[in-house]
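Predict the 3D structure for this chain.
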Amino acid sequence: MGFRINGILSNIHNPNEATLDFINQWNNSKPYIIAHTSGSTGIPKEIQLKKNDMIKSAKATCTFFNITKNSKMMLPLSPNYIAGKMMIVRAIVSGAELWIEEPSNRPLKYNYGKLDLLPVVPTQIDWIVSLNNSTKITNLIVGGGELSVARTQQLLKSGINTYSTFGMTETCSHIALRHISSDYYKTLPGITISQDVRGCLIITAPEFSFHQITTNDIVDVIDSNHFIWRGRIDNVINSGGIKIHPEQIEKKISSIITSPFYIVGEDDEKWGERITLYIESSYIDKTSIVAKLKTILDKHSIPQKIECVKQFYRTNNGKIKRIKNLNQIC
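Done. Predicted structure below.
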């Protein structure tokens, strides 16, 4: 399926260099495009994504959100990553109008009228809800990290129909969506899920070239199409024989820590691993933080070590790297 960016019927507006580079790849004779994983759980790697898989994924999302040639979309994310690439493919397969903006934490620089689909990352949400509906957003999809309790409440109060996405580069973006008023993800049509012996998610997609992918995401499976995400098995902390999911603690404490933060398990002679909380800040009041943590966490989940760090390490697309034993302590 081709697309001419210079054609008189082009439906992609204000394309930047990254958009044009992707469209050139899309229009070449190869059956795949080159993409890179985010690097949030390891070293970024180059992979080949089948164009047919991307088309199937795009059509599934367009069907879910009723995106047609009469729809309008906007892309405030980089086309260098899968979320941005797939918005372009959705415009190609549906014929919908797509406006491109350079990525920033203050998107929607213009009043586009009604937008039927807008993809964002969590750091863009504060600005979007502050705009007081100068641009009407019918559907918002959030990727690139779990939503905090505070931002979830912001979005619910705003009335914007919002979904959290679950997926990865290897699956051509999301394979499941979770409405922010719900705890569980629902798979897109044609995709089913199960668990391996570790309790990790297995994605089965017979119509896609990858057919099946086993992830390192720990989930509670409700049925073959619904699941609750608990966290990454790579991040599980074993402290005194108790297994702790740092992502679950982070979600609980996101309402009391406004600076960027993360939790990891670090080696401990007595407990095997200790829960460590790193906060990106030049100063923190540890006594005050501990007092607040004790009001919302059980005793096994309270961090035994709290440190501030001037600046976290991040991936190229802005995700925080969960590095242990950081030596940039304030």
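Residues 5-9 have pLDDT under 50 and may be disordered.
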